[in-house]
Specification:
The complex is a heterodimer. Helices cover 19% and strands 18% of the residues of chain A. Chain A is α+β, with helices and mostly antiparallel strands. Chain A folds into two domains: 123 residues, Ubiquitin-like (UB roll) (Roll), CATH 3.10.20; 149 residues, Alpha-Beta Plaits (2-Layer Sandwich). In chain A, the strands form four sheets. A five-stranded mixed β-sheet of chain A has the order 2-1-5-3-4, with helices on both faces. A three-stranded antiparallel β-sheet of chain A has the order 10-11-12. Chain B has three domains: 110 residues, Dimethylsulfoxide Reductase, domain 2 (3-Layer(aba) Sandwich); 191 residues, Rossmann fold (3-Layer(aba) Sandwich), CATH 3.40.50.740; 114 residues, Barwin-like endoglucanases. Chain B is built from 17 helices and 18 strands. In chain B, strands 13-17-14-16-15-18 form a six-stranded mixed barrel. A three-stranded parallel β-sheet of chain B has the order 6-7-8. In chain B, strands 9-10-11 form a three-stranded antiparallel β-sheet. In chain B, strand 4 and strand 5 form a beta hairpin. In chain B, helix 1 packs antiparallel against helix 4, helix 1 crosses helix 5 and helix 1 runs parallel beside helix 7. The longest helix of chain B is centred in the N-terminal third of the chain and has 15 residues. The chains are: A alpha+beta, B alpha/beta. At the A-B interface, strand 10, strand 11 and helix 7 of A face strand 10 of B.
Chain lengths: 308, 484
């Protein structure tokens, strides 16, 4: 019989977080141990329902004896670990990560907490100079691995490029993309197993792309929208929400979110209907519900028009 | 297609002969094994291969993997049930679970996947002809019937009613002259739909309560506009895993439409019965007082726990993750499980030289049933409905994608474009039922139904294909289509 180790048989041991003794359970990550004692660790690429990919480097902490900073989201706790979450090394690293992201990516629609972290870590992206000109349509997609262009240092490099709007359901604004990989993971083994998107290119040329950069309707995409649901910066957005924002009618104060059950098949996915002016503009699903852990299919995510 | 029993029986025989049956479980928890073993004896791997087209070695491997697995589930949808042998198809799968003990344990079991968000709940609430709410039998469970009679203050019928297929038979014989349809579109969804439309048109009185003016509603004498239950009203639905969950009102319904509960109570009032104007929760609480398996599911608990799986007998009961665990009690609780002999019968709509191709029907990912709901949204992966054929048959009939064909069955004919589908094997064709206004698939299907469950044999139609002229617009993305 294959099974996970029963909770009662898992070892418990002690370590310290910022000098305080904490008892943890074997198998936990440093991030989980910190959250258990209300120590805040900022994260961008981490999500409870996805496998940690360690790419954003925002959750780094110092572990005594470790040469490099370690990512809290994936590193497992060990007995007698001495963890520092608020050292100057940690804070410098987090400031640098946020500053480089904010100087090159549009974070204006990122989760509110990103703004709080920018203040907390004293982030000043403007010191890298004014943003360079946005890329032309398709320019960033033509970059090959290993290809770099010379930088003059007077402007901050940017990932800005025109929005990709190639289907009726959601659009891709990669000017807002921080390459957190969440969409790639949700499209792949962590949820949908469709593999319509992956990271193409290396270094600053890296970007999320369909196979051979084809438009979404020609790709393997099945429009489950599970990528849209996990995007933390608004780079992936339902078209209805985008148009509502563009038209100037966006009004968070008048919006409601109601939890209900999908009207289609018998799985019983929970839906959160986001409504403004009696119109559904977005459908999400609660991450912590056991039925599908936040994932939906095209019908549940986008098939609500018939109500209107 | 339609050889599910042959496959299951071959798997069963191989498990027995390979010595992989769970003889301890069979002895402790089942009866009728000998009858079953004898009935599957003719289904050697060679016979199985001949009847199903699946290589005998693959059947043997599947049988051994299933029998040896620590945990194994058999999941199925309408491909098993929409046959004239639908009930026996299911029993043939139950036999395999009993043979291996893959039932009543965490991670093992038999899993009919429901095709609609509340088809389980509909049955649980008594929307089947022989059951009261809570799956209590109206003919044999006298105690339950008396509880309902006492609560409702009126005598209830002591005999079961008709199921859907019997209702259409009764329309044909003139026994059924009036019909009140809620949220169903039989004028497009029934097998042999031409006949169904004729019978619906011939009714003396037809009432349709729906959220759209469906093709069925167009035939009605009275149409009652209802609200979309999942977004415009409060209540509960029950999913495939027996989980009762709350649906909630998120938007205000269009002017003139009313909640189902309100409509029914107002009709009752017109008939001289004051049922008041109960909330969804009040209706649910009445159900809980009469259906023991729902008794512990208060709205408060459904809210807190994200739903509960029946049976849930009281407010401390956690619900049941899986059923039939009783078969593992020592000794077992309740009656033993029965093996059934499941004789193989091919589909009734026989293949012959005139109708040589087997048509099966189903759904595609982005659409749903007759398209009443999914027709309204623009799906980037929706393509124009076409008869899907294997590459071999496309070659044999000298067809190219987009060519138009006349598809005939023994009941009727339709025109449709064709499309190559490499996942189909030679001799098998596929159509959906999503776009009856473009391709009226159910003009072809046979309305013969399973005598035990009343389900029509949608999944196996004999068709003939004849090439017509070129289609002007092959396979375009018809995402502007609105079908209400």
């Amino acid at each position: 019989m294959t099974s996970t180790v029963p909770i009662s048989l898992q070892r418990r041991f002690d370590l310290t977080i910022d000098g305080k003794d904490v008892t943890v359970t074997e198998g936990q990550t440093i991030l989980e141990a910190c959250r258990q004692v209300q120590v805040d660790i900022p994260t961008l690429c981490y999500l409870e329902t996805l496998t940690p990919v360690n790419v954003c480097r925002l959750c780094v902490v110092e572990v005594k004896g470790s040469r490099t900073l370690v990512s809290a989201c994936s590193r497992k706790v060990e007995p007698k670990m001495e963890i520092l979450t608020d050292s100057s090394r940690v804070n410098t690293s987090r400031r640098m990560v946020l500053e480089l992201l904010a100087s090159s990516v549009d974070l204006s629609l990122a989760d509110d907490e990103v703004g709080h972290w920018m203040q907390q870590y004293d982030v000043h992206p403007e010191r890298h100079g004014p943003q360079s000109d946005p890329a032309e349509e398709g320019e960033r997609d033509r970059g090959h691995a290993g290809e770099h262009k010379a930088i003059d240092g007077s402007t901050a490099e940017t990932v800005a490029q025109p929005i990709k709007r190639d289907n009726g359901q959601y659009l891709r604004d990669y000017s807002r993309c921080i390459l957190c990989y969440k969409c790639v993971e949700a499209c792949g083994v962590d949820a949908q197993n469709t593999f319509a998107i992956a990271v193409a290119g290396r270094g600053f040329e890296a970007r999320i792309s369909t196979e051979y950069n084809v438009a979404l309707p020609e790709s393997a995409c099945v429009y489950c929208g599970n990528c849209v649901a996990v995007c933390p910066t608004g780079a992936l957005m339902p078209t209805i929400e985008f148009d509502l924002r563009e038209s100037g009618k966006w009004d968070p104060k008048s919006q409601t979110v109601t939890q209900t059950v999908c009207p289609y098949c018998g799985v019983g996915c929970n839906l959160e209907l986001h409504v403004q002016d009696n119109q559904i503009f977005k459908v999400t699903s609660p991450l912590d519900h056991s039925t599908t852990s936040g994932n939906l299919c095209i019908k549940g995510r986008f098939g609500f028009e018939f109500v209107h | 297609m339609g050889s599910d029993i042959a496959l299951a029986n071959t798997i069963g025989r191989h498990i027995i002969h390979a010595g992989l049956s769970n003889s301890d479980f069979i002895r402790r928890a089942t009866i009728n094994f000998d009858v079953y073993a004898k009935s599957v004896e003719p289904f050697t791997l060679e016979v199985g291969e001949k009847l199903t087209g699946i290589p005998g070695t693959a059947i043997a491997q599947l049988a051994e993997d299933y029998a040896r697995a620590d945990r194994a589930q058999l999941c199925w949808t309408l491909g098993i049930t929409e046959h004239h042998t639908g009930t026996d198809n299911v029993l043939a799968l139950c036999n395999l679970a009993l043979l291996t003990g893959h039932v009543g344990r965490y991670g093992s079991g038999l899993v009919p996947l429901r095709g609609q968000n509340n088809v389980q709940g509909g049955g649980d609430m008594g929307a089947i002809p022989n059951k009261l709410p809570g799956f209590q039998d109206i003919e044999t469970d006298t105690f339950a019937r008396e509880q309902f009679e006492a609560r409702w203050g009126t005598p209830l019928p002591r005999t079961k009613g008709w199921h859907l297929s019997q209702m259409f038979d009764a329309m044909e014989t003139g026994e059924l002259t009036s019909l009140y349809i809620i949220g169903e579109n039989p004028a497009q969804s029934e097998a042999d739909v031409k006949k169904a439309r004729h019978l619906l048109t011939g009714l003396e009185h037809l009432v349709v309560q729906d959220i759209f003016l469906t093709k069925t509603a167009e035939l009605a004498d009275v149409v009652l506009p209802a609200t979309a239950s999942w977004a415009e009203s409060d209540g509960t639905v029950t999913s495939s895993e027996r989980r009762v969950q709350r649906v909630r009102r998120a938007v205000v319904q269009p002017a003139g439409s009313r909640d189902d509960v309100e409509i029914i109570c107002q009709i009752a009032a017109k008939m001289g019965h004051d049922w008041g104007s109960p909330t969804a929760e009040q209706v649910w609480d009445e159900l809980r007082s009469l259906s023991p398996m729902h008794a512990g599911m208060s709205y408060r608990r459904l809210e807190e726990l994200g739903g509960l799986q029946w049976p849930c007998y009281d407010e401390n009961h956690p619900g049941e993750l899986f059923l039939h665990g009783r078969l593992w009690d020592e000794p077992i609780t309740g009656p033993p499980a029965t093996f059934s002999a499941t004789p193989f019968e091919p589909p009734l709509d026989e293949l012959d030289s005139e109708f040589p191709i087997r048509l099966t029907t189903g759904r595609r990912l982005d659409s749903f049933n007759t398209g009443v709901q999914t027709g309204a949204y623009s799906s980037p992966i929706r393509s124009k409905e076409a008869l899907a054929l294997s590459p071999e048959d496309m070659g044999a009939y000298k067809l190219q994608d987009g060519d138009r064909v006349l598809v005939r069955s023994r009941r009727g004919g339709i025109e449709a474009p064709v499309r190559t589908d490499p996942t189909l094997r030679s001799g098998l064709a596929f159509l959906t039922l999503h776009f009856p206004d473009q391709v009226d698939t159910n003009l072809l299907t046979i309305d013969t139904w399973d005598k035990k469950a009343g389900t029509a044999e949608f999944k196996a139609t004999a068709i003939a294909i004849e090439r017509l002229g070129q289609d002007a617009t092959p396979n375009d993305h018809s995402d502007k289509r609105v079908d209400k």
